[in-house]
Specification:
mainly alpha; 13 helices; 2% strand; two-stranded antiparallel sheet; 347 residues; globular
Length: 347
């Protein structure tokens, strides 16, 4: 029994890793196509039909490109930095429920690697570790622009983690649990439409803004501000080490979208799912739930890209003022209002 469980989880981890890396690869293509659409251009259109093989060409270029390590760099830390960034980005997905249970060969298989009681705490902890990959890479490069970018990234991510955590507390107060599976299942009422975004609209806006800052996406891309810092913390990187940093950013965007879908948009819940439960085979329902989950994730990814190619970059002082003087007080107020509402009217 234990061997079967380990085998199931191992297969799920391999599938999830392959999907995550594949999505991160083609998000580069999607972003260039979205940017082209918003700017009335064509975008990649030569490598295959509609440029569909462009990400493979880019990946091949980065894989075979000459790898350079600066003479005065801390070699092992220079190598370790992108590895930490990539690993922390990938393992965050372990606690995300991607759909309902599958029934295969008389066994019930959960579409979640680990349903731990502290799922949200696990995500916040891994996100906090991720900043070390950026900080180590920037410092080990022995380049002042890389170091400035790393310092910006660390202070930015630490600042916005506070508001993000406070926004999550309001959701935890409502659900009474830190498990992502429980939070998703709590939103299955109202025929699959009892989503937390209707109860926590301010918390959602705060969390989404913090997610933009945590993933270093525009208009909060100050750590890699090309006009000031050349390329920021990965200025000295080349080949697949640079690719790891770029991949980690897109994986973080994908995982952030999945977390927001689970916490605020009901995860794999969809309108009318309770009626479908009686008329559809459980496995087909699970596949529909997976499709719904990825549709919500795709919506958030498009929003990330839309914002990047629409809004100008903040100044750094504006970024910090927004985090400390704007979002944190709003998140505290949202938490107090949620507590008062629960005290007066119940859950």
């Amino acid at each position: 029994m234990e061997f079967s469980l380990i085998l199931e989880k191992s297969i799920l981890v391999l599938i999830l890793t392959a999907i995550t890396l594949g999505i991160a690869t083609y998000l580069t293509y999607g972003e260039r196509k979205v940017a082209a659409f918003l700017q009335d251009r064509l975008g990649p259109n030569r490598a295959g039909i509609f440029g569909i093989f462009q990400p493979l060409a880019d990946a091949g270029k980065m894989f075979f490109k000459e790898e350079l390590i600066p003479k005065n760099a801390e070699k092992w830390l220079f190598i370790l930095g992108p590895g930490i960034a990539m690993v922390t980005a990938c393992i965050t997905s372990a606690v995300i429920p991607w759909g309902g249970d599958l029934i295969l060969g008389g066994r019930t298989i959960s579409l979640q690697v680990a349903d731990v009681d502290i799922g949200i705490l696990y995500i916040m902890g891994i996100v906090s570790v991720g900043v070390y990959g950026i900080m180590i890479g920037g410092w080990a490069s022995n380049n002042k622009y890389s170091l400035y970018g790393a310092i910006r990234a660390s202070s930015q991510m630490i600042s916005y983690e506070l508001a993000m955590g406070l926004a999550l507390i309001a959701v935890i107060m409502m659900s009474g649990d830190l498990s992502l599976r429980h939070i998703v299942d709590e939103q299955s009422g109202w025929h699959g439409m009892k989503w937390n975004i209707f109860f926590q609209p301010l918390g959602f806006i705060i969390f989404f803004t913090c997610a933009l800052a945590e993933t270093n996406r525009a208009p909060f891309d100050l750590p890699e501000c090309e006009t000031e810092l050349i390329g920021g913390y990965h200025t000295e990187y080349s080949s697949m080490k640079l690719g790891f940093y770029l991949f980690a950013e897109y994986i973080n965007m994908f995982i952030s979208s999945a977390v927001m879908a689970c916490i605020y948009l009901g995860g794999y819940n969809f309108p009318g799912m309770d009626a479908a439960w009686f008329s559809t085979h459980p496995n087909w329902l699970s596949m529909i739930e997976v499709g719904v989950m990825f549709a919500k994730v795709s919506f958030f990814i498009f929003c990330f890209m839309w914002i990047r190619w629409t809004l100008p970059r903040f100044r750094y002082d504006q970024l910090m003022h927004l985090g400390w003087k704007g979002l944190i007080p709003l998140a505290i107020a949202n938490m107090v209002i949620t507590g008062g509402w629960m005290l007066l009217f119940g859950k």
